[in-house]
Amino acid sequence: MPHSLREAVSAFRRTPLLTLLSVVAVAFSLFVGALFGLTAHNIRRAIDRMEERVEVVAYLRDDATDDQLRLLQQEVRLIPEVASVRHVSKTEALATAVQEMEEFRDVFTDLEANPLPASLELRLKPGARDPDTVERVATGLASYPFVEDVRFGRDWLGKIVSLRRVAGGAAGIIGGAFAAVAAIVIATAVRIAVFARREEISIMRLVGATDGFVRRPFLLEGLISGLLGGLLAAGLAYTAFRVVDAVLIRIEWLPVPWVVAGVAAGAVFGFVSSAIAVRRHLREV
Amino acid sequence: MIRLAAVRKEYPRSGAALDDVSFHIRKGEFAFLTGHSGAGKSTILRLLLMAERPTSGEVRVSGFSSTNVRRREVPKLRRKLGVVFQDFRLLPDRSAEENVAFALEVTGAKRSTIAPRVGRLLAQVGLAAKARSLPDELSGGERQRVAIARALANDPVVLLADEPTGNLDAWAARGVFDLFREINAMGMTVLMATHDLDLVRAFPEYRVIELSRGTVVYDSAATPVPEPT
Question: What value of ipTM does the predicted structure carry?
């Protein structure tokens, strides 16, 4: 085992309390960040689900021929933003209306002719559900002479956009604040741990250790503390997720890249904090 | 071996700690550096360790010059210097042998060579039986012996000592001083800063350089200091 790794490991043994302090500081800072991440992620998923319901409906004229309908379907499928196209015939439309509007059942069933138009229901791909794109697709559809009318939830879309903007802004600000607090807490804990060993650093320098030799065990130690803290935070956050999911509301666990990034952030914070703290002491001797 | 030429050291707040200090200590010499506390003894040791640079003048130690030594060369210099302090500066959570081994580990010595060398060093200072003891379990004199063993670990060319007997009772101090004499008798250059005038007077055969308020007021070596080459 190389000297620096041996020293890093034995530091955990020699100063278990300080090491524990660093690990716990990393863990709790990142845990708070993870809880926030969990909230932000689930709010985003909720908005995504709302947005998935965005559809553009083109109502067809009654005199539209089957050929025209086929042509329209073909052309609509070629639009890159379109995810799926569903044809709703007049009969289907009536059946749905009867089913969904029970109080008007008699009105619908007494009709001699079906007044409801056939339609094409378009769902758009994720990322193409913004008002501009939806408007553009809708305008394109409206230009067909056999399309009577095109509808999409214009107000609904606007609300989703502003909701997403508010949620994104809040996530950015609060998340940034959490990250800054985590960085400060971790840096302070690591600095205390390094400070406690300043005598060791000065003795190492006195007996002729190079800066790199002095630094390496501390960097490794910072990295390992950060990593352990990150893993502990991930464990705590997962436990919290399971509890909330089981007891309060159904939520989704964080995407794996987020978890990996969180643990990596712990390791990086630990490493960088150590580097800064040791640098300060290296300058002194 | 050690040469100071017209060395001046100023600190921004406290002013000049050393002024026009010149002396030359030859290989194998034993020299006391005396003077009141605050006379500049520790400043000279810090300059010799190249922990600081002089404001003007030149400090030369074993081929390294303060005028052109680079920060990354300083460790190489320090491996040629053994240093002993009044407060021992041992790592409290490591045994005597680990403290000595530490000085060898930092130089990247092979582990297989470290253990036998540490054993020999501790035997040389008379502490073979206490190799596993922690500093807290040792007396002051024993701790200083561990520090001396550590200072000798890398076969230095000079042994620098800053008040090495200052924290010791008379008996322990004598034992430690005798150890310095033995080490010097084997050919090592020794520079010992001390304000223990009884000790200095007891060994008139050794050179005395006396400092007062940052200047050399007495040097028992009558030889004038030659210009640095």
Answer: 0.83
User: Which helix or strand (DSSP H or E) is residue A260 part of?
Assistant: helix A256-284
Tokens representing A259?
């978890």
Asked whether the beta carbons of residue B106 and residue A213 sit closer than 8 angstroms, the reply is yes
B79 interfacial to chain A (CB closer than 8 Å): yes
* Domain final residue, candidates A126, A151, A176: A151
- Domain check: are A234 and A194 in the same one? yes
Instruction: Give the pTM.
Output: 0.70
Whether residue A209 is found in the same domain as residue A75: no
E strand or H helix that includes residue A35: helix A16-52
Is B169's Cβ below 8 Å from some Cβ in A?
no
Give me the count of residues in chain A.
Answer: 285
CA distance A11 to A18: 9
B83/A205 CB distance under 8 A = no
H or E, element range at A223: helix A211-247
**Dist CA B188 CA A2 (whole Å):** 33
User: Digits of tens for pLDDT over chain B (229 positions)?
Assistant: 899 999 999 999 888 999 999 999 999 999 999 998 888 998 999 999 999 999 999 999 999 999 999 988 999 999 999 999 999 999 888 999 999 998 998 888 888 899 999 999 999 999 999 999 999 999 999 999 999 999 999 999 999 999 999 889 989 999 999 999 999 999 999 999 998 888 899 999 999 999 999 999 999 885 454 555 5
Are A69 and A144 found together in one domain?
yes
Residue range of the domain that includes A99: 55-151
